[in-house]
Amino acid sequence: MEKEKYYIIMADIIGSGKHNAYELMRDFNDVINSINTENKERLLSPLTITLGDEFQGISSSIQDAIVLMIKIEEKIIHLQKNLKLRYVLYHGEIDTEINQNIAHGMLGKGLTNARYLLESLKKERKDRFIINIDSNPYLTEVLDLAFVGFQSIVDDWRPKDFEVVSPFLQLNNIKGDYKVVADKIGKDSSSVFRRKNSLQIHQYFSSRKLLINLTKSIDNNIVPISEEEMLEISCG
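Above: the chain sequence. Below: its structure as tokens.
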């Protein structure tokens, strides 16, 4: 009998050794505690800081897992924290009972493999997001690719930009109404208009929506495009 699989999220802080240890832990705790408080329905086991600069948790679904990673990125902006995380989302087995209070004391191949992927991500990849859903290679690949675009936008934002980016996100201002944001932060509207474009606010909302929409297309019969098919398209 096949064991039940769960959506495991793990992440760690990039370059944690370069930060002040006290400030790092304070900021990390602020972000994770806030996410747990606001997203209890999305978590089977809460995000739990395990090794000082890492956390793990179990989400309720693939969509909840993607939403949680996006929300963590946005929470860092809202709280104006100088943190950059790398994430692993792994769909795998957990042998022990799911701990609903803290993501400790659980064992299983899924957790072991997720840990291995996180360690490999530190050594081999510049991408901050890695998805592994063995039962659905199509969804794995398209989410990985979509996160490349998402990351390229977010990683261009600097802490000094968060003051402008945050109200756009808080207002869920998909249309990019810069005048509303300008009023909220007390800035000149023409200046905010220019920042909206340079910060790619519209592109960010599109990228975020794409990631969430992709989780709705869980069809195991779909396979990723092959390298041969890509070559044919490129040469066409």
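The longest strand covers residues 5-13.
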